[in-house]
Write a sequence for this structure.
């Protein structure tokens, strides 16, 4: 037995019923034996003519009303009941008489079930509530299976609401009186059969309560798939993090763009992060498969390139690495201040922003030149401190052509200079540059050396690099700042020119306009080859012509004169020396033995060994000595 409604007597409805009435010419209403569902629950026939529901007759409860004129006297009215409207209550029920206790609602027969707005219709089976209906909801108290034999949609949620609020809404609600941590409160299973016909859950989404305390609720949502026959957690949305490949199953994470298959790729096997590729061999690889270079840009302007961008990019042709668009320089900042810069020309600056392309300019900081030269400048503090911990020994080795020629060493509180020879600059009076043999005795003249420089002051400037200019494959863009600096180069003062006159000169392939200035000097005198025997004006021994200026000083011919320490001295071919002999000028650029062993104002040197180091074509020779100039 199946029924709709409360538990009611079973004999309320026993089949179809026909009510018969006779017209009297005036009556338009008649009382029915039962209340039909509505007009469609009756078939009304007058004088063998079927009447149209709601047009020819209406029904209200058990009252049948004939619309229009009254039924003529003697006419017969038949009212055939096809269904019954039952008020829901203790005294009424619908008894279903059919096979298998099923209720079949036949749409062709316009079969309906209705209730007032506040009423509820219950569906029961075997004494158990299966479903209930109200005017706004349908509630199922057990599982629902929707089966189709085709590929049509099996469940559609449709909202006809036109406002901006959400709709339709699917809610999975676990209504528990005792919620607890780790409760699974919702799960979607994706089930299919395997090759053996066994139902297999190939995918699953579920949400778990992690913290159920009111005001501190937390949850985790997991996306799980079948991998190699075992269910694995491939994506987890946790209260603190988003986790991919939680079960460590070599699951890669890949994001594809319109033009790059691996715009972002995390290798599940080795954990390497890749941009533009899936084959990186380091912890982070950036590669643009559509260009010859790859970029990493750090910027505060998301709408375009600026000169303040931090830019790191590599060029495939020469493995170049550049940071910042500032003319291709590699720049390091701390606290928004520039601390180091490797210039495109190769100079490396530390603690200075002096962008002078020429070396030899004043600065506070350190410059490591591209040609190997180093400049260190400080203000108010020591320039360089060399410290050897734990033991004594060499602090500095001084080499020529990779061979150590001298050292600075420390032993306790003493500092020694190994291979030491002290020298000064000098120049011949006529500024000539003849061949002078090394070790030749030179006499001082009563004339100071005069050296001049071309000096140009370059003010701070800014310039805009051509955004179409490409240098070594890299595009220069943005505003470049050039700090103020001064360029100085040694130069000869031409005839007719004076200090302060304008001069145009070239330094490091750059042309400058500046003025002539005289270098400040209080100790360097001009000299000549000694031509006075026993001269007391010996300035020192000729060492070499000074070509350290690389020709920048034009026709200024400076020489280095050895004056203190150890060196070689040129001895006259007719003089024989022994270790310990004191030497004086012979008057021809060579030395002779002093006539006594007392160090005097004319004493030039003391012989350290009679070993001949060099022998010249005129028969003069050199021996090691200690200078006493």
């Amino acid at each position: 037995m199946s029924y709709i409604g409360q538990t009611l007597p079973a004999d309320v409805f026993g089949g179809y019923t026909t009510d018969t009435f006779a017209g009297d010419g005036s009556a338009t209403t008649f009382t029915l034996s039962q209340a039909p569902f509505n007009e469609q629950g009756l078939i009304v026939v007058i004088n063998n003519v079927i009447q149209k529901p709601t047009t020819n007759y209406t029904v209200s409860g058990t009252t049948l009303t004939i619309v229009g004129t009254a039924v003529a006297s003697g006419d017969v009215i038949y009212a055939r009941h096809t269904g019954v409207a039952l008020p829901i209550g203790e005294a009424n029920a619908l008894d279903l008489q059919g096979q298998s206790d099923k209720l079949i609602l036949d749409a062709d027969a316009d079969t309906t079930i209705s209730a007032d707005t506040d009423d509820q219709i219950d569906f029961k089976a075997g004494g158990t509530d299966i479903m209930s209906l109200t005017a706004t909801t349908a509630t199922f108290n057990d599982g629902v299976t929707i089966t189709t034999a085709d590929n049509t949609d099996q469940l559609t949620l449709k909202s006809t609401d036109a406002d901006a609020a959400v709709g339709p809404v699917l809610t999975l609600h676990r209504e528990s009186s005792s919620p607890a941590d780790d409760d699974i409160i919702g799960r979607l299973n994706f089930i299919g059969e395997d090759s053996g016909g066994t139902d297999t859950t190939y995918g699953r989404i579920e949400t778990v309560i992690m913290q159920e305390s009111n005001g501190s609720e937390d949850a985790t949502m997991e996306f799980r798939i079948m991998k190699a026959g075992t269910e694995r957690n491939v994506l987890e949305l946790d209260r603190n993090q988003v986790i991919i490949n939680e079960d460590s199953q070599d699951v890669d994470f890949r994001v594809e763009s319109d033009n790059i298959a691996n715009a972002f790729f995390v290798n599940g096997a080795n954990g390497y992060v890749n941009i533009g590729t899936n084959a990186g061999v380091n912890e982070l690889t950036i590669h643009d498969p559509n260009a010859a270079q790859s970029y990493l840009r750090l910027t505060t302007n998301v709408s375009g390139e600026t000169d303040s961008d931090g830019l790191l990019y590599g060029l495939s042709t020469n493995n170049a690495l550049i940071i910042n668009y500032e003319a291709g320089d590699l720049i390091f900042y701390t606290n928004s201040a520039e601390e180091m810069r490797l210039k495109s020309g190769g100079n490396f600056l530390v603690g200075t922003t002096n962008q002078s392309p020429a070396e030899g300019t004043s600065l506070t900081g350190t410059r490591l030149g591209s040609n190997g030269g180093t400049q260190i400048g400080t203000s108010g503090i020591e320039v360089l401190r060399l410290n050897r911990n734990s033991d004594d020994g060499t602090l500095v080795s001084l080499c020529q052509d990779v061979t150590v020629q001298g050292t600075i060493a420390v032993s306790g509180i003493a500092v020694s200079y190994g291979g030491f020879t002290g020298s000064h600059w000098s120049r011949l009076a006529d500024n000539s540059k003849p061949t002078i043999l090394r070790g030749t005795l030179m006499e001082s003249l009563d004339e100071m050396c005069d050296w001049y420089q071309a000096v140009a002051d370059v003010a701070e400037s800014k310039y805009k690099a051509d955004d179409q200019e490409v240098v070594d494959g890299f595009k220069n863009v943005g505003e470049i700042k050039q700090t103020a600096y001064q360029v100085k180069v040694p130069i000869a003062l031409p005839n007719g020119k004076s200090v302060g006159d304008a001069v145009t000169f070239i330094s490091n392939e750059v042309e400058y306009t500046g003025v002539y200035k005289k270098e400040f000097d209080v100790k360097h005198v001009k000299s000549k080859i000694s031509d006075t025997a026993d001269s007391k004006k010996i300035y020192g021994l000729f060492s070499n012509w000074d070509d350290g200026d690389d020709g920048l000083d034009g026709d200024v011919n400076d020489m280095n004169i050895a004056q203190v320490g150890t060196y070689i001295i040129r001895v006259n071919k007719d003089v024989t020396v022994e270790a310990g002999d004191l030497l004086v000028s012979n008057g021809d650029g060579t030395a002779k033995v002093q006539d006594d062993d007392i160090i005097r104002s004319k004493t030039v040197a003391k012989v350290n060994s009679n070993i001949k180091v060099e022998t010249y074509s005129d028969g003069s020779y050199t021996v090691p000595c200690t200078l006493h100039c």
